[in-house]
Amino acid sequence: MRHIVVVMIFLNVNNGISSPSQTVDIDEPHTYTPPKHYFQTSSFDEADLDGPEGDGIARNPLDRGPYFDISASRNVTALVGNTAYLNCRVRNLGNRTVSWIRHRDLHLLTVGKATYTSDQRYQSVHNPALDDWSLKVLYPQPRDSGVYECQISTTPPVGYSMTLSVVEPITTIVGGPDLYIDTGSTVNLTCIVRHLPEPPPLILWTHNSEEINYDSPRGGVSVITEKGDITTSYLLIQRAKTSDSGKYTCSPSTANPITVNVHVLNDSPGTTEDLLQTLRMKGEHPAAIQSGHSLRSNLILAGFCTGLLLLLSIYRVSGGGDRSSTVR
Questions:
Q1: Is 83 in contact with 136 (CB distance < 8 Å)?
Q2: DSSP 8-state class, residue 62
Q3: CA 103, CA 105: separation in Å to the nearest integer?
Q4: What are the pLDDT digits (tens) for 9-43?
Q5: pLDDT (tens digit, 9 = 90+) per residue, 65-107?
Q6: Which helix (H) or strand (E) holds 280?
Q7: Which residues pair with 190 in a beta bridge?
Q8: Spatial contact of 94 and 156, defined as CB atoms under 8 Å apart
Q9: Residue 161 and residue 282: Cα distance in Å, rounded?
Q10: d(CA 114, CA 9)
């Protein structure tokens, strides 16, 4: 009889009836697990997400105090002189405080809403509706680039690092700062914008501080913009007139503007040649001259010179032959 009881217990264990791992308490309340981006990753290890028993079950972050919402980007790019914001979103802060520290020199910048540095360009901005504690940097410069840490005053403190990159875009107009154009030629102003984190949404062209109207009765004025890592905008003005002379400014919406002086020359004979001579006397290079008539004149002159040299060569050859015949 004893052997029969032992066999029945063995069968029950193998069938999982007595296995404690199969026991489910249907009255146990469900524990909510928030999205992973609500957990701190820079100062908390993955093991910190486990329960006190290390059973691998994630706990509600409200059970362990403040935590960071890291859904936002950790990389912030700002333009030189334009206010930069490093956004830190803290959940369940309670009575703790949020500080900002600069990694370059471990300098404490802000504590709560107060600024703890003599550089008043750094300010703390709190948005209670979103639980945001942002570091505001006024008039940022390239030297301000680096790593900044948002820190919660827990024991020990926990932090979330962000990288600020302050870039200085470069805007140029090919051939500037002065362009000389022959009357009747096509003006081609090429504006190039480099070192922007993304292409500028808008590039505005002005003539003598007035926005250019591409639908004006003058006609023949158009703009073509190619966006990319390097953004290029072409302003084309057909059949240039003396009234088209003046200052042209290319103003990208997210970069510094650049101005070029356009001089439309008269059709009077010798104007271009006199200008070239003047530039040479000043030691300037005349490469910034866009010319239609002068180019055709130069081609005609070159052809004439070539023909003259050919006639001289023929004359010398024929003349030399006559002298050799006379000697004989």
A1: yes
A2: G
A3: 6
A4: 344 434 443 333 333 333 333 333 333 333 333 34
A5: 888 888 877 899 888 888 999 999 998 888 999 999 999 999 9
A6: helix 271-281
A7: 234
A8: no
A9: 56
A10: 70
pTM: 0.48
Element (H or E) spanning 194, and its range?
Answer: strand 187-194
What burial class does residue 134 get, using C-beta atoms within 10 Å of its C-beta: 0-12 exposed, 13-18 middle, 19+ buried?
buried
Residue 174 reports pLDDT greater than 70: yes
Contact 169, 79 (CB under 8 A): yes
| Sign of the four-CA dihedral 49, 51, 57, 60 | negative
Quick one: tokens of 36?
């992973």
Summary mean pLDDT of the chain: 74
Question: CA-CA distance, 149 to 155, in Å (whole number)?
Answer: 16
From CA 88, how far away is CA 97, in angstroms rounded? 12
Nearest to 208 by CA among 156, 244, 238, 173: 244
264 and 242 in contact (C-beta within 8 Å)? Answer: yes
Q: Is the dihedral of CA 234, 235, 239, 242 positive or negative?
A: negative
What share of the chain has pLDDT > 70, as a percent? 62
Query: Which amino acid belongs to residue 238?
Result: Q
User: Which one-letter amino acid corresponds to residue 299?
Assistant: L
Q: Residue 190: enclosing H or E segment and its boundaries?
A: strand 187-194
Give residues with Cβ within 8 angstroms of 246, minimum separation 6: 207, 208, 261, 262
